[in-house]
């Protein structure tokens, strides 16, 4: 073999060797990644629906990959038996009463089997054991719910669209409010009024605050009313008396009512006086007669005074009256004189 | 030959089984079949031309490595870069290593290697054997009691069959490195994370199916090149035709085989 051939052979050998090394490293990395070359146990579970789970999909326990799906086969009545290859090192963490469910690596990721639960009281799972399965919420179910939500959303947006259209057209109170310039002006003035009102309210509340602060002043009526129990008792008594008075007044009013009721009847003197027209006419005539009589009597009396028989009596009475008047005047003057020296002393 | 004799005997116009063109296709198919049968016979029959196999391996493998490496590296970068916008729409650029590794290992690397090999090696074999046929070197070898088929065809087919998978390994490695270069620049992904994601996405089936495919591709490239060159027509034009036909036919067959292989692999994947 000449040198050129030798060199060529070595080159080919190196070329192939490097390729083999790449291949072997790739295989070992892949094997390490997929944990193909480690000791494992087989665990079974039965699902009603595996939702597209495939052989080779991962098996997770507490979010950690512990194995892969080894075999999927139909089982019993429309059930699916799944055989999982699980690392021996993870066996002690999985309990016999642990459960398995179909899950997903991410929102749109591969399907996985998730092992969860289990109590420490139950022993670790053994090779060939069957784990209980739990039905998971199906994507279709989620989609159905989402579809319902979408319909509701469409209805809501439709309603909003209708509302906005009506607003644009100026229909309804809010639409009018948005489009009518007069209303806007009114609204503006209303807001201004409101502002003024609120300012007044602020002022009023300030006054009220000041007033209420005064109410708490010691010795004031309100404070006494609120704090002094004696006043309150007196007030209560007054109220009771007032109530009693009211009751008496009510009673009196009732009596008055009864009496006034009787005034309408003619079976009594007042009733006859008030209601009988004939009696009234007679009374009027009587009164007229009385007036005439009194005039005539007056005349008679005057005549009597002039009479010589009675003149002395009237003169005597007149003198007594004058005397009494003079005595009264003298007494008054005497009192005035007594009071005058006292005033001068004071000055 | 029988038909020729028939014409000579009767003196009438040449008779065809169906038509001239269809008969020629069947004849060609038979020749291909006979060529394959002869190959499988010769490959196990001594003398074994190891030196020539090594020389061909050097020509096919080592000499093609720079071209394959460069192409693979560029493919890795370009494919990653072109895939990014689609994944970015879903905010899933972190899945680039997975996507790229699956694409490279399953399809890109074997196909690119096969196409480059068909272009470089297939045409070389076709032209080489074609010129040997034209210059009657093959005839001379037959006269000198050397088995030209064993020396020329078997060695070349063996070399392509074994070197194309090796080249594909290099292509996978280099393309993944190219993809890493792009991913690390844009996503700031560490090499460890990248490798973890790459090997998390691919399976043994992906790797082994690719290797088996490249064996088939290599065999096809070698056989097509050898057949076209070995059976080239006389004249310099025949050499060019042989080289051109080698490349076109080899590429076409590689794609057909890729399609068929995909169906078979999917069967295994579903199991």
UniProtKB/TrEMBL annotation, chain A:
Region annotation (Disordered) ranges: 319-347
Domain of life assignment: Bacteria
Pfam families, per database record: MlaD
Record flagged with keyword Translocase: no
Domain Mce/MlaD: 41-115
InterPro entries, sorted: Mce/MlaD, MlaD_Phospholipid_Transporter
Transmembrane feature ranges: 12-32
Statement: the UniProt record of this protein carries the keyword Transmembrane helix: yes
Compositionally biased residues, Basic and acidic residues: 319-332
Keywords: Membrane, Transmembrane, Transmembrane helix
Protein name, UniProt field: MlaD family protein
Source organism of the structure: Pontibacter anaerobius
Automatic annotation (TrEMBL), chain B:
Annotated Pfam families: MlaE
Domain of life: Bacteria
InterPro entries given in the database record: Permease_MalE
TM stretches of this protein: 60-79, 157-181, 201-225, 246-268
Lineage of source species: Bacteria, Pseudomonadati, Bacteroidota, Cytophagia, Cytophagales
Signal peptide: none
Protein name: ABC transporter permease
Keywords, ordered alphabetically: Membrane, Transmembrane, Transmembrane helix
